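DATA SHEET
Item: assembly model
Revision: 1
Owner: S.N.
Input lines:
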Amino acid sequence: MNIGDVSARTGLPAKTIRYYEDINLIKPMRDDNGYRRFRDQDVHKLNFLGRARALGFTIEDCRTLLALYEDETRASADVKQVARDHLVQIETKIADLNAMRDTLSHLIDACAGDDRPDCPILRDLGGKG
Amino acid sequence: MNIGDVSARTGLPAKTIRYYEDINLIKPMRDDNGYRRFRDQDVHKLNFLGRARALGFTIEDCRTLLALYEDETRASADVKQVARDHLVQIETKIADLNAMRDTLSHLIDACAGDDRPDCPILRDLGGKG
DNA sequence: CTTGACCTTCCCGTCACTGGAACCCCCATC
DNA sequence: GATGGGGGTTCCAGTGACGGGAAGGTCAAG
């Protein structure tokens, strides 16, 4: 399979697939003409990566998870720890964003949104001034 | 005031303040020795920027908001629109993160987390395989 | 033989900074 | 006068995870 087929099959842009090879996440073969040749196991890995990325894991997390995936003697505790650390990151982000949303929506509610210059949003940003 | 004092007063790193000058968000004076000299209005602007950034506004949003802040003839509707657009972005991000969190926490709950290799997390990432 | 779709590498740009090198300025102390 | 330390300055490179686009090689169809 060439990169275009793999891209269609995995939903990953060709650029992304090349990037993943660059950083040694996958190692496709090469045809004589220099084209990458992907085997099923490469496609499988790419699907794995796509799903892990969709769950917000960093590339380095993906590298770790992929190594665990390929290690038949792994302990599920190791996988769980990576996932739990990531979950904490996500929950922290959610909390930050919720705080922003609350502040912002209060300010928006308080703003008349008409053609007059008076604006609680700017007043708040300007420091209650 | 020199940049160090302004940094202490605004809580913004000196690097960030220089960066904001680079991209023309602020225009501090210069002393004869080349040092930046900040007036109260510069500090005020930097505080504005710090608060806007803390609410997650992009730098370009901040530029817009700052221009509106300084425009006595602004319409509050313009400010409100910028804020509402940003709120949509935030809520989209929150929804994405919530979806990740839900999936991830289910997988974590399903994982024994012991020394055996069997792991629902990897099974899911590997495509139910 | 040419067209057009595909593939290749390479380099720059994104966003909002951060780190670090190399250098200048000013004040105090020995 | 030398020195030391704590400011300040510029400029360059790196971050994460790609995306855009140039310049060029390859291949099947007409």
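QC remark: Chain B touches chain A through 54 residues (CB under 8 Å).
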